[in-house]
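The instructor's notes for this session suggest beginning with a concrete chain rather than abstract definitions. Hand out the sequence below and ask the class to guess, before any prediction is shown, which regions might be ordered.
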Amino acid sequence: MSYIRKLSNGKYRAEIRKNQTTIKNKTFIKKSDAELWANDFECKITKILSIKSKKLKKLSPDEVEELGGIDLFDKLGVDVDFVIFKDVLNSYIKDWKGKDQSMTARALFWLTIFSDKPIKSIKPSHIEKILDQYAIGSVQGMGSNTAKGNNTLLRMKSVLSSIFIYAIDKKYLDKNPTLKVKIKAEKNQIERFLSDAERVRLLNVCKESTWDKMHLLILLAVTTGMRKSELSYLRWSDINFDKGLATLHDTKNGSPRLNPIPNFVLEEMKPFRQVGNGLIFFSPSDREKPFDFRKQWEKMRRDADIIDFRFHDLRHSAASYLVMGGATLYETGQILGHKSQETTQRYAHLSTNHKAALSERVMNKVFNG
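After discussion, reveal the predicted structure:
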């Protein structure tokens, strides 16, 4: 039942009560506005209470929000255990800022696992079981045929945790079940970077690719250290040819950054240059979608006879070249957009080795001719 009362300051407060307890109130300047809001809210309550249990279980989070939100359902004593994982995830993806392809793929992986399961029924034991199976390659999706390390499992868990945090914000949940899932992080040491000979071979075969931008893509990756997702969504409007900078808006750590591009790479870009904000590496079927270059990349890697090497290792290569070329770890981290110094620290041994080799070469020349 609604009540309208005039306040001492001349404004009007509308209150919605149930069993003498206020469940919602709002203040207005005009009495007519207060009455309109109260009537609208009472209509929502009437609609909620009239929904049959079968239809109730089919309500999406968006529909719940339109009816006043999960708080109102709770206060009216309407059971909200019907909210399923699929609907929460779809709402989450709509609101998701800074998403990239890999994070979206992980979210969709969890969708295949928990799709129609009520979100309140998902327990830590369910999550642990799936991650255990995923670790040994016995669950479908996300490269399921190969075993996974703990750091990969942590990334999978992190995306799921974000979904549950969103559900808590929307009051579909009280606790995040992923908090009880313990996974020990592995020391993330540098794994692989291109040798000089490998780099030359790779860039040479890329010039022969059936995709005319293959050479440009690899050159950008290995000279700037941009991630695959950052390159895929790079637009011509992001490139400042005068200053030699690329503005990256959606990065892994959530903060935009300016990424330097060497002049000789800018020259390579100019023949492809377009006016506007179109994607640089667009799909032929849809210019607003990035080109899926996985097949071309694998062929180039095989043709160049480069073994045990991922596309992401091009980023490691860029970092390695910077450190061995004399850049400090701090400078390298700034260029690559590392959020913590610990991430850049994995390249410290390259700096030490390079300095030792430099000292050996210089001192040997001075004292031994």
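Then share the key points. The longest helix spans residues 348-368. The first strand starts at residue 2 and ends at 6.
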